[in-house]
Amino acid sequence: MPVEIPKDSWPGSVNTVTLGATGDQGGSRTSTVTIGGEQSLPFMHFENPTPHRPVIAMEVAAARPADWSAVLLEAWGSTLDDPAVWARACEDAGADLIVLQFGLKGSDDGPVSAEFAVEVVKEVMDSTGLPLVVLGPGQAEIDNSILVPIADATKGERIVLGLCEEGNYRTIVAAAMANDHLVLGKTPMDVNLAKQLNILMTDMGLPLDRIVMDPTTGALGYGIEYGYSVMERLRLAALQGDAMTQLPMLVTPGVETWKTKESKVGAGIPDEWGEWAERGVNWETLTAVALIEAGADVVVLRHPQSLVRVRAAIAELTASETA
Amino acid sequence: MALSGIQIYKMLPQTNCKECGFATCLAFAMKLAAKQAELDGCPYVTEESKAALAESATPPIRLVTLKGKAGEAKAGNEVVLFRHEKTFYNRPGVFIRVLDTEDDEVIENKVRTGSSYSVDYVGMELRIDGFAVEAASGDRTRLATVVEALRASTGLPLILVGSDPAVLSGGLDKLEGEAPLIMGADTSNWEAMADLAAGRGAALGIRGGSIEELAQLSEKIKEKGVEDLVLYPAVDSMSASLALNTQIRRLALKNFRPLGYPTIAFAAASGDQGRESLMAAQAICKYAGFVVIDTFAPELIYPLLVLRENIFTDPQKPIQVLPALYEINSPGRSDPVLVTTNFSITYFSVANEVEGAGLPAWLLVTDAEGMSVLTAWAAGKFDAESIAKAVKQFGVADKVDQKWIVLPGHTAVLSGELEEELPDWVIKVGPREAVDLPGYMRQVLN
Amino acid sequence: MSRYIATRAIRGANALVGEAEAMLEQALSEKGPDTPVAFPNTAYHLPVIFGMTGKEIAHLGELPEILVQARSLLHPTPSREHWTPYLGETLDSGMATLLAAETIEAIRYVYGLQPESMPGFELAGGTSFTSPDMNGGGNQPPNGHLNGAIDDIQLRSWGIQLVDGRMPGFAAIVGCASSNEAAVQIVRELQRRNILCFLSGNVNGHSIIDQLHEEGVELGYDTYTVPFGTDTISAIYALGFATRSALTFGGLKGGQPREILNYNKDRVFAFVLALGEVDDLKYSAAAGAINFGFPVIADTVIPQILPTGITTYEHVVSMPWNEIDGANDTEKAERLVQKCIEVRGVKVRVANVPVPVPYGSAFEGEVVRKADMRAEFGGRDSRCFEYLKMAKLDELTDGKIEVIGRGLSDVPDQGSMDMAILIEVAGRQMEQDFEPVLERQIHYFVNGASGIQHIGQRDITWIRLSTKAAEAGFDMEHFGKILHARFHSDFGAIVDKVQVTIITEPEEVEARLEEARAAYDFRNKRLADLTDTAVDEFYSCTLCQSFAPNHVCIVSPERLGLCGAYNWLDCKASFSINPTGPNQPIKLGRIIDPVRGYWEGTNAYARIGSHGVVEEVAMYSIMENPMTACGCFECIMMLIPEANGVMVVSREDTSMTPAGMTFSTLAGMAGGGIQTPGVMGVGKYYLISPKFISADGGFKRVVWMSSVLKDGMAEELKMVAEREGDAELIDRVADERSVTTVEELLPWLEENGHPALTMDPII
Question: C265: how many CB neighbours lie within 10 A of its CB?
Fold first, then answer.
């Protein structure tokens, strides 16, 4: 029986965004990462090939994380003490990108400072050739105080600076524009808020091919369904031609997963939860893969084993000859 | 063009007899229009109307129910491609596969732990739905023995997997009065399989590598009188499986009847548990009606069941947690009482922040019908009265000496009324966002 | 455009281009064409020339072509007899002036004449001038000269603050103030508002830089006051700064003059403050600034150019110093700066609410009990009302707070006093229709202060002040301070000036109360007159799309949002405040069907807003293409075909309805953004609208409604009954007290003579 395969033909597509710049391009990265460009829903190869596979970013903390799960501490060992070593280890493990996350603390437990931040960024850039996403601690004033000098000190590297939120996007966008960087906009799980921030950011003159958006997700069991549906809706809107939703999406299953009790805690929990480390990795990988199938272009992970599994899944999903 | 409830109503008897289970004919008509009811529910509908309504009133994906001795697993009746468009209705059944070539003890152990497994997730008991028994031995008697042994340990619905109808019938002999799934029919054995399924009242799985093959087989088998069908897109990679499942769902929703059945996925991946978990996760998100896995390990089953719960939550009926007084980090008599609503995400954000910061606190969760703080406040479901009621209901005053209760910042406006309701308490107004709670607790509450 | 200004600007430009040509000719012969030219420490070459022409000038020999271009922009002065349009000519002359001025400064750098030397002068903070060849080496303190051009490092630091709004704008001050004291006060006023000051120019050889220097005011990067030079030509550095802002932060490139000028007009809130006599050169430089959208405010008598065009508001405004209302230079300076801010549309932020008690939303719900009370206003023993009205911009002094009558100290402990809170607001975007929307905010704003309790609104306002707050120093004027600060911070988009008068004098309260009541009545009437046919746009509301992704509320004057929280005026105000927000205007366009309520605009919006799920929306029908719902509806309506009418159940009503379903079951059917003919979620005040399902027969179709609605809206429903011509109509509608099933409903309706039974079939 001949059956006509129902193919969607969409008028819109996702923006193509290149992260990082090599020596020839005004930066110092050994490789760049290009994301976006989708003309179909994720992995519908019978309609269109996936132009750029989803990529995996590994999170590196600028100062040794004080509150990470013991499972992660064990997995990474002493590399956690030095962000440069850690970033290198991520590259060796097969990461596509490094997300360098600053907290409120700088060196010697003092508050994070511009000098410290610039220093760490430079060390990390010396130790890895991967493109970088650099995130402030998430408090507008502190973010501005470190991201602006970082942007100045790394002009031309096409770093992704974040987080741009409604309260502080102007400063970060201005710093990105002045130094040929990209920005990451983050809005709380809402299609319209995401659009609104994108309108505001592009309104400042920042070209769409320099913005990545984080629509915010919850971890498995902790609101993943909201993030999942918001992402599906954003992607559908993008394909339908709504320019302010056509940004590639970055989401953070690692951050979300490893703050849940299921991943973080190993004692005093029900037997039905099973073995701790494997559960944590499952929690992170299931979250990541569900979000990749909802349209994520970048997933930020924490556990090295998760990197291996998610990378394998991405490879399988993007292998078009089997479709 | 789908008919509206009013258009359907015009074709119904309009007697409000209630035999369909709905209070009025209009209510039934609206459910039909939403494809959440079947026309068969109305005993008095005329043949004329039946014909006119058939197209509009049949759910595009047939509801298939597997029945065991205890419990059933339903799949189908889905009406959308994306959960946000309406909701996904029937949670895909999670089945654990055993091989009849495995040792009795291994099987027994797997089945016993699996069928008694139950995990609490926000007050819900999550369980697996049944077992798949694969007739790997090719031996009718062996299969019968294994199924019989299995039935001694569990009453959950079963799927019998094999390609020889004669072998499978041995297992079916032991499942009198049940509705298992036979998995399944292919181009070589479909007639015999169809006869077997028809004879035993079982649902029949169809195995095919392409939509054409699946559609062709389903049409032929349907002609033989078997209507409870399940499609198995038998492809290897995650990408091919995603593509086939999507195509089947899309065609079914376009009322292409030969593919209007639930699908089944086999996530087993020869010992690679990482891959198995991700295959299963994809199947849950993308359209499978039944998911079969090999590994029974709590650290895998728990996240899979939670994923299923999350994806199949009605977007308009948020998951709720039980209203109660929750303890975070073993609070003592001088620790503060934080109050919030029973919307699961609200609860989790608050609980996670406080727990993550290692700060002890009592978390009082009120019954706000699953709404977030602001929504519940706006709807009058989170007010001074309901908070005071919860304080009394859960005996909060007996648990603490220092009577400090912290309101969510967005509802600062309640503080005055709450003082009236709880005269012995000190009412504090906390931050608006959960993320600011640890800082607030450290600075203000110390 | 004033012919006078055109004449002077064109004349000034002609002269300056001539001067530049002469200087360049001399420099070329003395130094040679290969002599490098540059401003210090910038990657943007000669920035105005680079921005406007795309030319990367590096040597003297490349400058002649710039002056050729400048000359080509010159025009003859307007004829006295035959007036031709001359706005374009004047702007061209302004541009020619800028190109010539930058050429001249570049040549002066070649000769070491820039930065301008000023013996004994010390710059506060760094300097852009670091060449070791001059002034004794780079490590020496920056003494003996002015600043000259701004370097790129400072540009980035200030540019980011200008872009992100921390710095509201910059003032290019040119000339010399009427007195040293005036100069100091003007600069202080600008600094107080965080506005950057660029100083240049002179009048008869005396510069504002001299004035400030004489008064001991520190000038330099550190104090946000940059002395460029004592002639008008050095003002070019201000426009070089503006051009580089656009290049750096606007993602623009050299040779995009139009984009650079527009960027500055839209985003760089700068203005020119011309102090003292305005000569030809100043006119032509001002014309140059107007190209950037920077208006000119002069403190002398000059012709004004008030119509809007190149700049956002007025182009040239004259505000003669001696005519400014003010007791002293400080007050005059404040008014002058206020005017500058107003003309350029600079938005000033008020960071904190200046009251002696803690302030924040955490205190919104506080109750002040009688025992803790210092005084109350309103309630049983006194009168209190609040009234906000719109005024013209020039009628108000922003931040002025006046208390008329007794103060708090005159009130006995736990006593009460009459009080009127009168708020006048003015703003370019303010509309009279926004008055009630803003007035409603007073409640929240006042409540934010710890120790203050605010209840009610309009003339039933009741405010209590706690003893603790009074002890902390809270007095009557602080109500004004709160309101001033909050209206600026929350409604800055539509409010530019806020002035508050607190009246406690009983007779005055009485008099003003009448005025306020007249206004309340007027507003009520205005609301009643505000019909769907009286407007040409409705508003969308997508606030709830996070719940129901494909749902769009369309809010019209006669149909409020289904949540009951947003009416048409609210949406309109919300759009003005937040133009990219959830409330967008829907242009109605052609009316397709006035009975059911179809417009081209509403249908088109429904399609877009619902992402193609909803094709058409009938504004006035439940039976055909009814509006979808999110889930927030106050009431659900459902068709009762047996009774030839509809029922309305309130969210607060949990009992069974004749539809055989309770509110919560019905909600699943009505919500989710799916069009379900026969079911609709609505705001309860839609029930009393003349457009209430008017296509289906209107209110007479209501056969059953929750008693909570009947009781809660008794007054309003009575009026509906009268409008429908049946005073008993509401009594003919069943409710859950009498009927909970459809079987009971029919006989009940017959008994009570409900009109729906005899109306045309609804299906």
Answer: 18
Query: Is there a domain that residue B319 lies in?
Result: no
Give contacts of C166 with chain A, Cβ < 8 Å. Answer: 171
Q: What band does C137 get if pLDDT is binned at 50, 70 and 90?
A: very low
Distance, CA of B232 to CA of B210 (rounded, Å)? 10
Cβ neighbors of C511 (< 8 A, separation 6 or more) are: none
Q: Which residues span the domain enclosing B418? A: 324-443
**pLDDT reported for residue C84:** 55
Domain check: are B80 and B46 in the same one?
no
Distance CA C85, CA C78 (A): 9
Question: Model confidence at A135, in pLDDT bands (50, 70, 90)?
Answer: very high
pLDDT in tens, B303-337: 999 999 999 998 877 778 889 999 999 999 999 99
- Closest residue on chain A to C579 (Cα): A196
CB distance A221–B303 less than 8 Å? yes
Pair B253, B383 in one domain: no
How many structural domains does chain B have? Answer: 3
User: In this structure, are B112 and B237 located in the same domain?
Assistant: yes
Mean pLDDT of A14-38: 97
CB-based contact C164 A189, cutoff 8 Å: no
Tokens representing B187 are 């181009």
Window 516-555 of C: residues touching B by CB (8 A cutoff) are: 547-550
Is A240's CB within 8 Å of C250's CB? no
Contact C362 B429 (CB under 8 A): yes
A321 touches chain B (CB under 8 A): no
Q: What are B105's two structure tokens?
A: 């003890």
Enumerate neighbours of B (3 or more CB pairs within 8 A).
A, C
Please tell me if residue A5 touches chain B, with a CB cutoff of 8 Å: yes
Question: In chain B, which residue's Cα lies nearest the Cα of A282?
Answer: B300
| Chain B environment of A46 (Cβ under 8 Å) | 243, 247
The overall longest dimension of chain C from CA atoms, in Å, is 111
User: What's the CATH number for C3-110?
Assistant: 1.10.8.190
CATH 2.60.40.10 applies to domain C117-128+141-344? no
Residues B103 and B214 in one domain: yes
- Same domain for B29 and B172, yes or no, is no
B316 occurs within a structural domain: no
Fold adopted by A18-32+42-314: TIM Barrel (3.20.20)
Query: Do B141 and B236 share a domain, yes or no?
Result: yes
Q: What is the pLDDT, as a whole number, of residue C547?
A: 63
The CATH code of the domain that includes B27 is 1.10.15.40
Which residues in chain B touch residue C678, judged by CB atoms under 8 angstroms apart?
A: 4-6, 9, 26, 30
**Which pLDDT band holds residue C546 (cuts at 50, 70, 90)?**
low
Choice among A155-164, B77-86, C1-10, C136-145 with the minimum mean pLDDT? C136-145
Picking from B118, B281, B352, the nearest residue to A289 by CB comes out as: B281
Span C60-70, average pLDDT? 96
Q: Is there a domain that residue B317 lies in?
A: no
CB contact under 8 A, A236 and B281: no
Band of residue C132 on the pLDDT scale cut at 50, 70, 90? very low
* Domain residue spans of chain C: 3-110, 117-128+141-344, 361-513, 533-758
Which pLDDT score is estimated for C44? Answer: 94
Residues B228 and B305 in one domain: yes
- Cα–Cα distance list, A299 to A97, A188, A306 (Å): 10, 17, 11
What is the CATH code for C361-513? 3.30.1650.10
A285 touches chain B (CB under 8 A): yes
User: Coil, helix or strand for C568?
Assistant: helix
**At the topology level of CATH, where does C533-758 sit?**
3.40.1470
Mutation site, B91, B121, B187, B238, interface A, largest A CB count within 10 A: B238
| Stretch 204-233 of chain A: residues touching chain C, C-beta under 8 Å | 204-207, 229-230, 233
User: Rounded to whole angstroms, what are the CA distances from B420 to A8, B411, B417, B426, C467?
Assistant: 60, 16, 5, 11, 19
Q: Tokens 């009971």 identify what position?
A: C744
ipTM of this predicted complex?
Answer: 0.96
Give the per-residue pLDDT at C352.
78
Interchain pair C549, A191: CB under 8 A? yes
Smallest Cβ–Cβ distance between A272 and the set B277, B278, B302 belongs to B302
Residues whose CB is less than 8 angstroms from the CB of residue B270 and which lie 6 or more positions away in sequence, other chains included: none
- Kindly report, residue by residue over C19-58, the tens digit of the pLDDT: 999 999 999 999 999 999 999 999 999 999 999 999 999 9
Distances (CA, A) of B24 to B12, C89, C639, C749, C763: 11, 78, 11, 18, 16
Instruction: Note whether B13 and B42 are within 8 A (CB).
Output: yes
